[in-house]
Amino acid sequence: MNENARPLRRNEIRAQNEALILQAAETVFAEAGFGGATMQLIADMAGLPKANLHYYFATKEDLYRRVVQNIFEIWLHAADCFDNAPGPVEAIGAYVDAKMEISRRHPNGSKVWASEVMHGAPVIQDYLESTLRDWTAGRARLIQNWIDEGRMDPVNPDHLLYMLWATTQHYADFGHQIETLNGGAPLSDVQWLAAKESVKRIILKGIGAI
Amino acid sequence: MNENARPLRRNEIRAQNEALILQAAETVFAEAGFGGATMQLIADMAGLPKANLHYYFATKEDLYRRVVQNIFEIWLHAADCFDNAPGPVEAIGAYVDAKMEISRRHPNGSKVWASEVMHGAPVIQDYLESTLRDWTAGRARLIQNWIDEGRMDPVNPDHLLYMLWATTQHYADFGHQIETLNGGAPLSDVQWLAAKESVKRIILKGIGAI
DNA sequence: CTTCACCTTGACCATACGGTCAGGAAAAGA
DNA sequence: TCTTTTCCTGACCGTATGGTCAAGGTGAAG
Fold first, then answer.
1. Which of A15, A123, A127, B114 is the most buried (most CB within 10 A)?
2. If you compute the radius of gyration of chain A from its CA atoms, what whole number of angstroms results?
3. Rounded CA Rg of chain B
4. Is A94 found in the same domain as A47?
5. Residue B8 — pLDDT band, cuts 50, 70, 90?
6. Alpha-carbon span A36 to A26, nearest angstrom
């Protein structure tokens, strides 16, 4: 860090180090889980002494909480495309694209999120009960409208949303399994495109939107 | 354990205690992850002293390995319905039913499996590369045959399989999230049925099998 | 230059964890 | 009955972990 000679300003130091730590923490938490992650490992990966981590983040849980919150932001943001779309084909298509892109670009974030939820969401239960619940209810209403307008089959909106989450996040959370089945190589650009198209095609046709 | 007075025979003792420990271990590993789980916690949940765990399972990793292997057995067994079915509708329908039932009856097992894969499959990598790869290749060939016979759309068999895994396992791995969005209550019998039918309907229609 | 607030870090601490072991209890076999 | 094998467990050990702290370094403000 700070390879060039220019001394860093205060704000830069703080911002840069926090980002560095959060990045390293996301990786380590994703690879080892909360319990398996150690502050020492995160510190090594960030290239800082362990004590410095505790200067910026008081406890391991604080650090973890920040990591999870960051992911939740990204996660929610992906849903914007859902709102400004004229109909189910565009909305769901764009949503799948966005979430697949997240799975590809932020696989570690997705894993941390999955791990957190799997362990009973000890840290972000309140988010689930407020923000996520509201978001889900709103999108379910949107879907119901499309159904009422005859633009898609009468499917259960909740289960459709679960299906969208499941299929897209699977490519991040189970990326290692997919990679192994792909002969040990990560999916290529072409394969990612095929995955996206597969998911979109099957779901959109499955709900009678195309 | 051994509530009635009858003394247990050797074989019974061993079998009973191993089962007790494996059951407790599955729960704890699912709730806390490998790193977060402690032998003490597993021992408490099994109602045995910690030293007794190490009598039956030498190390924490041995115990974990056994838990994961048990799950893999169940997982693979669910695939039997795939083989003896006359066509895609029956095969995929039965497979979804079976996997949804596993998600409902063995949510902890599914979580441990997911956790293991998410962390790079340190313990069961060889299974992925042998048994699972073979299984997947065989099923993909089956699907390709159905496509060639014009019994379903020309979809990518691998991505279809991923979709089946993702959607069904989601109900176990993200069960807590679903429960929260369901007002804090577990899915009822009716809701589980609706979930199954939703998944089957969308996928089967989505691949042009119905 | 001086002062002050912020940043850095090696050394340290208490605790909790995985694992060991010796010695006793209980069942199986003779 | 006596012997052998298996099972049980409290007490213990070395280590690794999350977290603390005091002392020193460094950019900003006057």
1. B114
2. 20
3. 20
4. no
5. low
6. 13
- Chain-centroid distance, C-alpha A111: 8
Interface contact flag, B163 A160, Cβ < 8 Å: no
Q: What is the pLDDT of residues A152-193, one digit of tens each?
A: 999 999 999 999 999 999 999 999 999 999 999 999 999 999
B150, two tokens:
């014009």
Indicate the number of domains in chain B.
2
Residue A4 lies in a domain: no
Could you tell me the residue range of the domain that residue A84 belongs to? Answer: 68-206
CATH of the domain at A33: 1.10.10.60
**Per-residue buried b or exposed e for B177-198, using 16+ beta carbons within 10 Å of the residue's own CB:** bbebbeeeeebeeebbebbbbb
Q: Which helix (H) or strand (E) holds A201?
A: helix A189-206
ipTM of the complex: 0.93
**Residues A41, A129 within the same domain:** no
On whether any CB of chain A is under 8 Å from the CB of B66, the answer is no
Q: What's the whole-number mean pLDDT along residues B129-156?
A: 96
Q: Do B114 and A173 touch (CB under 8 A)?
A: yes
Segment B154-183, tens digit of pLDDT: 999 999 999 999 999 999 999 999 999 999
In a domain, A1, yes or no: no
What CATH code is carried by the domain that includes residue A76? 1.10.357.10
**Above 90 in pLDDT, residue A79?**
no
**A-chain residues within 8 Å CB-CB of B160?**
198, 202
Share of chain B above pLDDT 70, in %: 96
Q: What pLDDT shows up at residue B106?
A: 96
Residue with tokens 């590809």: A104
